[in-house]
Amino acid sequence: MIQLSNRELTLDLLDPDSDQSRLGTRYCWGGYIWQVHDVRQGPLLTGPEWPEPKPTPFNGQGLPESFRFRTRDERALTWNGREGVHLGGGSLRASATGEAEMAEPCRWTLTRQPDRLTYRTSQQAFGYDYELMRRIELTDRTVTSTSLLTNHGTEPLHLEWFPHPFFALTDGLVRAEMSPGFSMAENPGFHWKDNVITLKRRFAGPRDGHMELMTPPTTGVLRAQIDHPRLEGVEFETSYTPSECPIWANGLTFSIEPYLAAVLPPGQSHRWNVRYRFGRGR
Predict the structure, then answer these.
(1) Against a cut of 0.90, is the pTM above it?
(2) How many CA atoms lie within 13 A of 205 on its CB side?
C-alpha cells in the first residue's frame, strides 16, 4: 500500500505494482484510494463485501474510479475488434467467452509531495494513444481526486468515467441529501422526498440490494451530504455535470456514481475532479 497522511486522516492507496492481486479490469489502477482512516474514528469507508480483507477486484472497496471500456448496455468504447484498452489499467483482450482480460498493465510513475500524490501513465495500443495524470490531494479533512486525460491518437477518444465511492451505512440505513435538480422515479429500493434519498428497507448482506438511475440536472455539479455512523457526515462533490447517475446499495455499503461522458478529439485534453469532505467525529 501507498500512504498519504496528515494530522486528521490517513489514506491507503493501492500500489499499481505490488497490489496487482487487488486490481482488475474495472477500476483505474493509479490513485485507487483503498481506505480513509480517521486518527480517532478508524476506517471510514466500506465496500460490497466489507469487512472482507481481500474482496474480489470487481467489487473492491474505498473510493475507486472507473474508466469504462464498454457502456452499461455493452456498446464498445475503447475496443478494436477483440482487443482494446482499459484507460488507466492496461491493454485488454477478449477471452473465449467474450469477457475482458488484462493483457498487459500500464506502467505508472509516482511523484510524492507532503500533501499530494501524482500518478502518470501513457499507453499506445490497438490504435489508441493517450496520457493520463491522476492526482490525490489531502488537505485537512478533504480528499480531492483529479484526472487529466490527453488524447495523442489520430481518432476521437470516447470517454465514459465514474467514481464509485463506497460509503458506510448508519445502522444499516442510508440518508443522502442531493443538490437541487436531481429526480428519481418510484422504485422498490429507495425513497425520494425533498431531494433526500433513504432506503425503503434494510438490505440483508452482500447479495441483497438495489440499483436505481437518478435523472441529473442539465446544468450544475453534483453535491451530496451523506450520513456517516461515526462522523458528522461526508460531503461529496463533482466538478462536472453528470451525464447520468446510478445509485446503489446492499447490506454493507451505499454508492452514488455520477458519470462523466465526453469525446476527446485528437490533441485535446480533459480535466475533472471529485472531492470528499469528511466531517468531524461525533
Answers:
(1) yes
(2) 2
